[in-house]
Amino acid sequence: MSDFMMFSLVPLVVAVIIGMTCALLGNFLVLRRQSLIGDAISHVALPGIVVSFILTGMLASTAMMLGAGVSALVTVAMIELIRRLGRVETSAAMGVTFTSLFALGVLLLEWHDATGVHLDVEHALYGNLESLIWFEGTGLAALFDPTALAGLPRQLPRVALVGVLVVAFVAVFRRHLVLGSFDPDFAASVRARPALVDLLLVSLVAVAAIAAFEAVGSIIVIAMFICPAAAARLMTDRLATQIAWSQGFAVLASVLGYVLAGYGPGWFGFDASLSAAGTIATLSGLILLAACVAGPRRHPAAA
Amino acid sequence: MTQAPPISEEVAKSPLAIHGLTVSYAHHPVVHSVDFVTPPGSLTAIVGPNGAGKSTLLKAVLGITRRLTGEVRVFGEPVEAMSRHVAYVPQRSSVDWDFPATVIDVVTMGLFRDLHWWQLTRRHHRQRALESLSRVGMEAFADRQIGQLSGGQQQRVFLARALTQQAELTILDEPFAGVDAATEKAIVEVLKQLKREGRTLLCVHHDLATVRDYFDHVLLLNVRRIAAGPVDEVFTERNLQATYGGRLSAVQLARLLEPADVAHAGSGR
Q1: CB distance B100–A302 less than 8 Å?
Q2: Least C-beta-crowded within 10 Å: which of A14, A23, A53, B245?
Q3: Partner residue facing B147 (CB), from A183, A239, A300
Q4: Chain B: nearest CA to A240, how far in angstroms?
Q5: Do B46 and B219 meet the contact criterion of CB atoms below 8 Å apart?
Q6: What residue ranges do the domains of chain A occupy?
Q7: CA of B159 to nearest chain A CA: how many angstroms apart?
Q8: Starting at the edge strand that comes first in sequence, how are the strands of the sheet with B169-173 ordered?
């Protein structure tokens, strides 16, 4: 039990919160056919963090968040610029932007040799879920012990805060989000500010991606922005039901993925474990695959 | 900035008065210095060739597209403060009908301005949406997924959403595009009924042959205002040729115009 509390509780909770948060936002990205923006922003967090490290010389979380936030804004601006100047599709502009900025981040990282301070490409991709150890979590009593709770890895309160922020945003702006996704012109005509809400949505995607980045890496973030919501869309034609499905899928992938990564190889006699982030992302992909094959709404309704 | 001149009584009473409206895309005017005062209680068609800026004019009025210059007033007040009084039916093809929503969901969107974020959609809201649906003969489809509707049914749902807005002025962008004859008739009936209730309607319209039957006023537009006024006075050969750049054939015109108009316009040549 204390093993579980110490080594598994925090990673599990963090993975579930991040999964649910990203999947919630992912619903609106899928409806706007903007899923790739989550991918773009979580990749671009890397150069943002590297630049903030180069400028401040340390891995302070505020500076990192700020750097990643600025780079998210740069990304959105670059995508729009390339789309207009190059007269290409948004998805093409996104692809060009995030791959080149991520590559720039890798080069900056090598060139500046920040590798010594626990900032490397591998970490950026797979994150650090298994390292979220709660040393004070020695038993159930620790859950009610303020000093033990104070020892919780700081990633946990951070992602929890972001999760609350995202839920509040969706709750307050649910009609704006639906209207702006379905019919932006009508939304503008009733002064629902679709462009502003769109910007807020992308900003929150950036905040969620950045907060998750450090704890779980970008692979899981990308998967959670796209897979649960896309799979949920194939299950139903009702938005509320779709959101519920996406949350269920996110929890399923996170919990099952974490357990499988830790214990799965052991069941087959291997004395090893897999990357939790990688397993969770793979599972969410498998869920999407299953929904594609068997989801009841996988064909668009006939007109 | 100079002080805005005092507004005339005509403008103060008009549900939509446009003055000097210019919209441009990439330094190229799409709508150029258009003036138009919509008479209260009128059913007005906006007619012009493709690319004449008809939809753009509407979108600029509604604040969807930024206007370069010009004033838009609703009952004499700037439109920004009066958007509650304006309902809008966009082109049906402008949205993704595969969106996960039911018919009643879409019609309830017309209540957007009446609902604060903490309010849930209650039974009386649903009732209001159902009443709109029954006015367009679609109440039986309330819980249908919107992707399962035919084009004509989709258009009626859009009209029902605008009815739910209960606005003084309704702006429609090609409500008859791609709908069957029965739907067209049903929509016209609703529009005429709204007019009888004293509401004002402004409608981009493509079919020149039905302008006389459906509308009482017309705005002929080709980037600039060519002519505007009651259909009987304005819908003439000369004005139509000016609007369409002389591309209408004599046969086409003969079918559109009442014999008297043709004789009148002919004598003027």
Answers
A1: no
A2: B245
A3: A300
A4: 9
A5: yes
A6: 2-130+154-294
A7: 12
A8: B86-89, B169-173, B200-204, B43-47, B217-222, B224-230
Task: Select the residue of A183, A191, A302 nearest B90 (Cβ to Cβ).
Answer: A183
Alpha helices by DSSP H, listed for B47-110, are 54-62, 103-108
Average pLDDT over residues A44-49: 80
Residues in A touching B99 (Cβ below 8 Å): 31, 181-182
Does the distance separating the beta carbons of B117 and A172 come in below 8 Å? Answer: yes
Rounded to whole angstroms, how far apart are CA atoms B88 and B202? 10
The pLDDT tens digits of the residues spanning A216-227 come to: 777 888 899 999
Which residue has 């033990």 as its token pair?
A: A148
> Å from A234 to nearest chain B CA?
10
How many contacts (CB atoms, under 8 Å) link A and B? Answer: 82
Look at residue B127 in the predicted model and tell me its pLDDT.
Answer: 93
Return the structure tokens found at A277: 């982030």
Please state the ipTM of this predicted complex: 0.89
Residue A49 has pLDDT above 90, yes or no: no
**Which homologous superfamily is A2-130+154-294 in?**
ABC transporter involved in vitamin B12 uptake, BtuC (1.10.3470.10)
Between CA A63 and CA A56 the distance in angstroms is 8
Long-range contacts from A240-245, C-beta under 8 angstroms, 24+ separation: A242/A27, A242/B100, A243/A24, A243/A27
| Chain A residue closest in CA terms to B91 | A185
Q: Give the amino acid at A264.
A: G
